[in-house]
């Protein structure tokens, strides 16, 4: 069996199919790890969601911010589509309910203890090790499945902006959601800034790319993530960044997690959206 990690699909279903062909994916042999953001902005969100759901046990998927946005629009009163969303086909699909139910059951983090690999969409604050990250992600998953409208309706907002183990209730859950699905940079103390989206070279003190914070508790674990298209493919600092901006005209990327020397495999984008 080979474990392949795949970056943000974001509705690029044709590129996903081409990538699976290129890596010679076989459902009797391979497992696919998706970094989240299966949907939105790209032209084939419905097809992408159906394709990944159809992979069944061959797919490990964590939720990204765009996946949560889809769930909020569908299930939380008052949340509406944004101008550049490409989620309408999902919301009108005959299998809408089955797709949304499947998405609701995806976690925000997946930890493979045997391989010491942690999958998240965005990042981890310095105080979190792999086990704490998955425990906090489980808290969000429990709230999401127990009362989806409540969690989805209250998860928006940039506060609190730092981790504190005494956080409770919705403030705690919102912070966990923001870290795991939206964060790119933070301070050494774990304060997060959700507005910075540029390349790492534009990050200025006291901010650091989350994976470059000295002494972070997750340093002993390989972290696989997406979300940061301006970062692009990144394999250093004990992490593997896989958002190569397919939806923005870049590429969709896969890496064999079981071969640390393996080159990435990529399929060029057929979509060319302008960045906002």
The CATH architecture name reads 4-Layer Sandwich
CATH superfamily: Metallo-dependent phosphatases
Cα end-to-end separation: 40 Å
What is the CATH third-level topology name? Answer: Purple Acid Phosphatase, chain A, domain 2
Order of helices and strands: EHEHEHHHEEHHHEEEEEEEE
Rg over C-alpha atoms, rounded to the nearest angstrom: 17 Å
| Overall pLDDT confidence | 96
Biggest sheet, open or closed, and with what strands and sense? 5 strands, mixed
Summed up, the helix count is 8
Q: What's the total number of strands?
A: 13
Q: How many structural domains can be distinguished in the coordinates?
A: 1
The CATH C-level class name: Alpha Beta
Regions with little confidence, pLDDT below 50 for 5+ residues: none
| General form | globular
Overall helicity: 25-40%
- In percent terms, what proportion of residues is strand? 15-25%
Strands of the widest sheet, in order across it, are: 3-2-1-12-13
Structural class: alpha/beta
Structure description:
With 276 residues, this protein is an alpha/beta fold. The protein has a single domain (2-268), classed as Purple Acid Phosphatase, chain A, domain 2 (4-Layer Sandwich). 29% of the residues lie in helices and 17% in strands. It has eight helices and 13 strands. The protein has helices at 13-22, 45-53, 65-75, 88-91, 96-104, 130-146, 148-154, 169-181; strands spanning 2-6, 30-34, 59-61, 109-112, 117-120, 185-186, 192-193, 208-209, 222-225, 234-236, 239-241, 251-256, 265-268. The strands form three sheets. A five-stranded mixed sheet has the order 3-2-1-12-13, with helices on one face. The termini are far apart. 45% of the residues are buried. The mean pLDDT is 96.
